[in-house]
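Hello Y.,

Per our agreement to keep a running log of every chain we model this quarter, I'm adding this entry. I've kept the format consistent with earlier entries: sequence first, then predicted structure.
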Amino acid sequence: MEKMKKIDMRCRPPVGSIAKTWFYGSNLDGFAHKFGGGTIPLSAKKKDLNMLIEEMKEENMQGFACLRRNGNPNANRDIAQFLNEHGDMFYGAIGVDLYDMELVMSDIDEYVINGPFTAVNIEPDCPPAGHEDSYMYLDDERISPIYQKCMDNNIPVTFTYGGPVFDVEFKNPVHLANVLNNFPNLRVCLMHGGWPFFNTYILGIAVANPNLFISADSYMLGLPGWRDYVDAANTLCPDQICFGTSYPLNSIQHVIDFYEKAGFRPEVMQKVYYDNAARFLGLKAPDDREPTEVELIGQAMVESAQLMAED
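Predicted structure for the entry above:
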């Protein structure tokens, strides 16, 4: 029996600039253990792309890699070559330098609109050297031209939005809500799932915005609040919760084993594994989903108004 098709929304293959980042360091054995008691996979320790690809094929899985531009001006270029060679297995989001808007627009044209990348990764809380004391919030007006360009060209956007809270104001839901309100047709995915604030306010924003996708990745794996992602997928947000492993910081098999036992209803499992990510990435139509709670309420209100008008 063929395994369910999957897209790993938090996968960093050991190639180019990615293989030189901290998550391919030598001291990460303890990291996976903290996230669900997992292990660092052998393919990651060896930085062996072929081993990773075989693991992914075994699980009928593709990967999505988000880049950070900070500190590496050649990051998009070297991963573009990788995507050209392995486009059947991987998708990617370019990294951008928010303090060089002309370069950002040029990179979107070259690497996304006319290149092998699928999305744009924006991390305003990780400024490049020289701007450490002036990082932006998500709704900073200086970022708006990027959002507008992405929305106009049907390009999805990812944020790393979860994990340790160094600046509470950055996680203020108003900034995220402002982006979604100002750019209503922009598809956005929150990497790290908005943890630890998912159930306190991110879930409410997601219910109101079907174009907001959630990939809890590492923070799904037994951490406090992980069941909220399962409950959300089973009830209010079956078309917005996405699968992710955080490879190489955990083994693919360990994460899949966790998801299989997490309590997702059988009818939403394929959505979580593949369909939701496919709609985010543009592989499936954005409206190929069930109506949300808000949409159902809106439809009922329209019908009520029509009945009252007839009376």
